[in-house]
Amino acid sequence: MQGLHLTADLAGCRAIELLTDSLALARRCREHTEAAGLRVVGEHWHRFPDLAPGQPGGMTGMLLLAESHVALHTWPELAGVTLDVYVCNYGEDNSAKARVLMTALVAMFGAQRVHEQALQRRRP
Amino acid sequence: MQGLHLTADLAGCRAIELLTDSLALARRCREHTEAAGLRVVGEHWHRFPDLAPGQPGGMTGMLLLAESHVALHTWPELAGVTLDVYVCNYGEDNSAKARVLMTALVAMFGAQRVHEQALQRRRP
Fold it and tell me: Tell me, what's the pLDDT at B36?
C-alpha cells in the first residue's frame, strides 16, 4: 500500500485545445502513461457543459492503473489544469515512473506556472 | 481551481467483504458522496484477478464529481484501503463536504489504523 502521490496544479496552459478535446486528451494521457511503464486497466472521462455558446466546458478524467491512478481536471476558462499521479509500490518501486509521467503531463499542457506537491502514502 | 485534497490510508479494515464486492462498494460510495452533498457525474471500477483460488483480488474505483473526484484502492490481503477525496472550491467552498465524506468512508471500512493527510490545491 505504500506509495508516492504527486500533484501538480497548472496555470497559463498554452495547449489550450487539449483542455476541451476529450478524445485527444485521453489518447495522449494513455500514451504518456504507457510510455512511463505504467499499465492502464480502465478509464472514464466526463465533459462539463459549455459555459456559453462557443465557450466549451472543462473535462474531468481518470485512468485506473494496475499501480493506482491518474486524474485530471481542466478549466479552459482559466487555462488551468490539476493533475494527480498516484502509484503504489507493491511488488516494485514505481516512484521513478510516476515522476516521469508527471513531467510528461506537465510539459504536454505547456503550463507557464506550476504548483507541485508530493505525498508519501503508507500502511498505517 | 483551488481546493482541498484529503487522503486516508487504512489498515485493519473490519468490513473486509467490502474490499472485494464491487457492486456493494460502488453503491455505498455513491450513497455517501451524495449524502455529503457532492454530485457524481461518472464512475469506473476495476477488479484485479484473484490472488489464489478463494482469495479475491483488490478493487480500484473512481467517482468523477462535479466538484472533482473520489478514488479508492483496496488490498484485501492486507485488510487495507487507500482513499482520496478531492474537491475544488470553484463557485463555493466544498471543504466541509469533503471532510464529511472522508469521515463516512473511513467509518464504512471499520479501519483500526488510519493515516490521514491533506493538501491545499491552488492556482499557481
Answer: 98
The pLDDT assigned to A91 comes to 82
Residues B46/B60, Cβ–Cβ less than 8 Å:
yes
A75, B60: Cβ pair inside 8 Å? no
A73 has catalytic annotation: yes
Domain that holds residue A88: 3-114
ipTM associated with this complex: 0.94
Question: Which residues does chain B have within 8 Å of residue A62's beta carbon, measured at their own beta carbons?
Answer: 44, 62, 64, 69, 71
Q: What is the pTM of this model?
A: 0.96
Q: B55 lies in a domain?
A: no
CB pairs A-B closer than 8 Å: 121
Residue B84 touches chain A, beta carbons under 8 Å: yes
- Residue A114 to residue B52: CA distance in whole angstroms: 44
Q: Please report the pLDDT score of residue B1 as a whole number.
A: 80
Q: Is residue B101 part of a domain?
A: yes
Residues in chain B: 124
C-beta separation of A121 from B71 below 8 A: no
**CB half-sphere exposure, A60, CA atoms < 13 A:** 21
The pLDDT of residue B104 is above 90: yes
What's A96's domain CATH number? Answer: 3.60.90.10
> A9 with A80: CB under 8 angstroms?
yes
